Amino acid sequence: MYVAGLVVxxxxxxxxxxxxxxxxxxxxxKHLRFFTLLMLVSCIYALGFLLQHLSFNSSELLQGSRxxxxxxxxxxxxxxxxxxxxxxxxxRPWLTVSILIIPIITVILVxxxxxxxxxxxxSSFTADPIPLLTFSGSVFRTIYxxxxxxxxxxxxxxxxxxxxxxxxxxxxxxxxxxxAMAIPILGNLLTAFxxxxxxxxxxxxxxxxxxxxxxxxxFTKIFQIAPLARAEIVENMQDGFxxxxxxxxxxxxxxAAKQLFPAFEYATIGLPLTDLKTHLWDxxxxxxxxxxxxxxxxxxxYRVSSNDIMHEGxxxxxxxxxxxxxxxxxLMDEITHMAERDGLTNLLNRRAFCRDAEKxxxxxxxxxxxxxxxxxxxxxFKKVNDTxxxxxxxxxxxxxxxxxxxxxxxxxxxxxxxGEEFCIFLFSLTAEQAAEIAEGCRQQIEQLSIxxxxxxxxxxxxxxxxxxxxxxxxxxxxxxxxxxAALYKAKSSGxxxxxW
Length: 500
What we know:
This protein is of the alpha+beta class. It has helices spanning 2-25, 32-54, 58-87, 93-111, 139-165, 168-194, 202-219, 226-234, 255-260, 326-340, 350-367, 381-388, 390-407, 431-446, 476-492; strands at 240-244, 250-253, 290-295, 298-311, 314-324, 371-378, 413-418, 421-427, 450-452, 455-457, 461-468, 498-499. Mean pLDDT is 79; it is low at 122-136 and 222-228.
């Protein structure tokens, strides 16, 4: 029995050590982070068995048992962490700490034995009471034993549940994992309950588990091709990438999508999209084509597209891609601004004014209400150009436009109609208020002192006002004609005045 145990434990330790070294040197393979930790604790576990078998007294046996527990206590947690990583389940810090509490307490109790007075059972090699993993004994060891199996059971259940929800490739991969997990559990049950073998074969069965997972991870390349490509390409995409199953449940999201929508950071596979607080879908559940979002770099604009991923004639899932469309949007806004704005004054140009004013006229005719159109002209503007030059004339127009922007409301439509002529469409006010605004504007511009090349230029304006609507068939063209007639009357009657 001694020789058989020595051979089994040595081979187990060597195999697990090889698996551990393989995991360390194959860091680029996906899921090896937790597989490395799993092999490390399994290797320590097997080393503890080997040291126990090579011990000659109770003191050496105790030290070997401590090494064994240092690994054994963390085999089940690391297996669960590996399965969670394999299934794509987010591992929150509080959950990780909670799972590790009992294993950490176990290690502390083992390493402080016999000073803590807790009885861990009797050795199969000596009559001295030293800590060894047996089914009978202290209540705490029973709790630890049940807890370890509970974690393995949870890992099994998670793997099976996700296997039923995922694609055929995932189902193929999960077979390796399920078989590998079942082998050490079977070995431990045979040793602990049935006593079919004179030595504990748990570490030997654990080495078989490590070999199967290592083979699946590295040699069959089932995790190297698609997941590694995903990690290197999809995760580093600048565009957001979201996978949704046909039932409208969350499957996956890359780093860009999680940064844009923090709700995806903690979303688990199978979570209904209605439970995720995002503005990708409208109130009816339809995917938006465009949206804007506030980020640390300012407002960003995004375009959304979706494509069904087909396999054997049926849709496996829907891929939603979110493109950062900010540069294109800004370019289009700039082009639109250039097409609608006057280059000198930055006011609306004549074309944009007519479009917005026509829309407002239709609203007024449909829903009712009054509005007023002001035609404004700079008096003796040609004289300004002739006396001070065209650059001075441009400066006068800029001063007048800035005064108009300050004087009128943001809801009013203010435009440079042409040359030195301006148009303002006012609504939601009375005739008395319109008259007061027009007169105040005339007085303010009359009081302006415009400095240009150390010269002071003073100008006045004439204003003609027409009321809308005067009849049910009133048009914008007719309204402009009436306001222009009033402006002509203001200029012909002496300028620097307001005429209705």
